[in-house]
Write a structure and sequence with these properties.
Elements: E1 3-7, E2 12-15, E3 20-24, E4 28-31, H1 36-49, E5 52-55, H2 66-78, E6 86-92, H3 99-107, E7 113-116, H4 136-145, E8 149-151, H5 165-180, E9 186-188, H6 194-202, E10 208-212, H7 221-225, H8 242-253, E11 259-261, H9 270-273, H10 288-298, H11 305-317, E12 325-335, E13 340-343, E14 346-349, E15 357-361
Parallel strand pairs: 4-5, 5-6, 6-7, 7-8, 8-9, 9-10, 10-11
Antiparallel strand pairs: 1-2, 2-3, 3-12, 12-15, 13-14
Helix pairs in contact: 3-4
Bound molecules: N-carbamoyl-L-aspartate (NCD) and zinc ion.
N-carbamoyl-L-aspartate binds next to loops.
Length: 364
């Protein structure tokens, strides 16, 4: 096989047959690790492939103080080998959040960012924000200290169609917040619409980024609803129509560093998914990098996978890129991680992209 060096600076290489890709080890800028038995079952999947992850704080009860974030970080570390994976903790913003506590927790190295959930928007978001004016002081303090705000961008009004909730959030909530506190660094999490892609592209502040999940690059709303209801494709924000998926693929593979990987891998035990009122969330961690390799290859942009998964996120967060490397190998025989991860609380179904996985992470 002939090796072609595409970018000596980043170490990205692939052979002519495009059957091997070496890139800097990626990070996951949006991840749910849960707690207890599910944490123990799922954390190794992320730690195997990712060097760092922004860990979501939507436990029950949510992670709202620096001390709770530190304790949660210890519980994560306890189920993983001592080295090789760094959980970057977040605080769950409530209307009672004290600006000084946030700044102190960040200065102490306990938390990397703050997560905004509109109340009722998604799994375990009951403690989220209803009146955005009540958290204005926190936003000002975060802007002053350079702490990013990670936004679940959906309105929760019953009269707004669920497929419109992201676009409406941008106009009614996000844009006013950013105008009121222009110094605030914001990540629009798990974007799902062409409107969100356009909003990021139109920004000229240099303080706006967006994460894109693996599953939103693969599924549209038909996957959830056509030919039978498929709860393991149900997540929030819900997948939209195909034109939006295409816009997300263009954003992810287009080389714009404002778009970076946040898997939003969100495990729920099958009993909580396969029921009359199932939880939102796709468990993608075991297949995230192989599925991404497939998507980027199909777009003719395998050379941009490293930018999306390994370079753009650290650049936004002002962190160093990882020095170690990951190699993805493509083989004629498809590979599967199996259908489920077993946990002491029950099985967790792994995201099925709906196509055979020929790419695989080479064990290090
Ligand atoms: C997430 C979860 O289960 O915690 N669910 C999801 O569908 N993504 C919450 C979230 O990120 O909205
Ligand atoms: Zn999430």
């Amino acid at each position: 096989m002939v090796r072609i060096t595409l970018d000596a600076g980043t170490g990205l290489r692939y052979g002519r047959g495009m059957d091997r890709l070496t890139l800097r080890r990626p990070d996951d800028w949006h991840l749910h690790l849960r707690d207890g038995a599910v944490l123990a079952a799922v954390a190794p999947d992320s730690a195997r492939d990712f060097a760092r992850a922004i860990v979501m704080p939507n436990l029950v009860p949510p992670v709202v103080t620096g001390a709770q974030a530190a304790a949660y970080r210890e519980r994560i570390r306890a189920v993983l080998p001592a080295a090789g994976f760094t959980p970057l903790m977040t605080l769950y913003l409530t209307e009672d959040t004290d600006p000084e506590d946030v700044v102190a927790a960040h200065a102490a190295g306990l938390v990397t960012a703050v997560k905004l959930y509109p109340a009722g928007a998604t799994t375990n978001s009951a403690s989220g924000v209803r009146d955005f004016d009540r958290v204005r002081g926190v936003f000002e303090a975060m802007a002053g200290a350079g702490i990013p705000l990670l936004v679940h961008g959906e309105v929760t009004d019953a009269d707004i169609d669920i497929f419109d909730r992201e676009a409406v959030f941008i106009d009614r909530v996000l844009d006013p917040i950013r105008r009121a506190t222009p110094g605030l660094r914001v990540v629009m999490e798990h974007i799902t619409t062409a409107e969100a892609v356009g909003y990021v592209r139109a920004d000229s502040s240099g303080r706006l980024g967006a994460t894109i999940t693996v599953h939103h690059l693969v599924i549209n709303r038909n996957h959830i609803l056509a030919g039978g209801i498929r709860p393991h494709y149900y997540c929030l924000p819900v997948a939209k129509r195909e034109t939006h998926r295409v816009a997300l693929v263009e954003a992810a593979t287009g080389g714009d560093p404002r778009f970076f990987l946040g898997t939003d891998s969100a495990p729920h035990v099958d009993a909580a998914k396969e029921t009359a009122c199932g939880c939102a969330g796709c468990y993608t961690a075991p297949v995230a990098m192989p599925v991404l390799a497939h998507v980027f290859e199909a777009a003719g942009r395998l050379d941009r996978l490293e930018g999306f998964a390994s370079l753009a996120g650290p650049a936004f967060y002002g962190l160093p890129v990882n020095e170690d490397r990951m190699t993805l190998v493509k083989s004629p025989e498809p590979w599967s991680p199996g259908a489920r991860r077993e946990s002491a609380d029950g099985p967790v179904t792994i995201f099925d992209p709906g196509f055979p996985l020929h790419w695989r992470v080479q064990p290090s």
